[in-house]
Amino acid sequence: MNGHLAYGRSKTANILFAVVFDERNRVRGVRAAAVHPGGIQTELGRYADRKQIEQLVEHMNQQLAAEGKPPFQWKTIPQGAATSVWAAVVADADEIGGQYCENCHVGNIVPDNATINAMSEGVRAYALDPKTAEALWNKSEELVRESFTQNKL
Predict the structure, then answer these.
(1) Residues identified as active-site
(2) Contact residues for 115 (Cβ-Cβ < 8 A; gap 6+)
(3) Which end of the chain is more exposed for a tag (fewer CB within 10 A), N or C?
(4) Where are the domains of the chain?
(5) What are 35's strand-pairing partners?
(6) CA angle at residue 33 from 63 to 28, to 5 degrees?
(7) How far is it, in rounded angstroms, from Cα 131 to Cα 98?
(8) Cα separation of 145 and 143, whole Å?
(9) pTM, two decimal places
């Protein structure tokens, strides 16, 4: 499987887990949201092919230019942390619970045919679908042979 595809699928799973965790635990006052920090040059990419990253950024910039948007810029670590801090400390839990957050706001749902990438704003509706989230949660419990009921949290 393509590394970028696998990475995207893992991020979708993270969002789906936040959706179902929030649904299962909000009655207890425990909330969850998926948070995207944006493009940050951290140790996560230490083994990535620099040429491939440059090509990815070049491709993104071509897409952005075609949409009349400014070119991609890497965030600093504090800029990347801002959305996590906002979600944890500033945002209203009812506003962000079970949602996808980026750039210190709840992300907009983008159409399935829209061109987005790891650095784009927006989230696909399927990543927030409660039925898909519940199915992933149930499959995960089945695979690890463990049930994570509300009483165990």
Answers:
(1) 7
(2) 63
(3) N
(4) 3-152
(5) 101
(6) 170
(7) 13
(8) 5
(9) 0.86
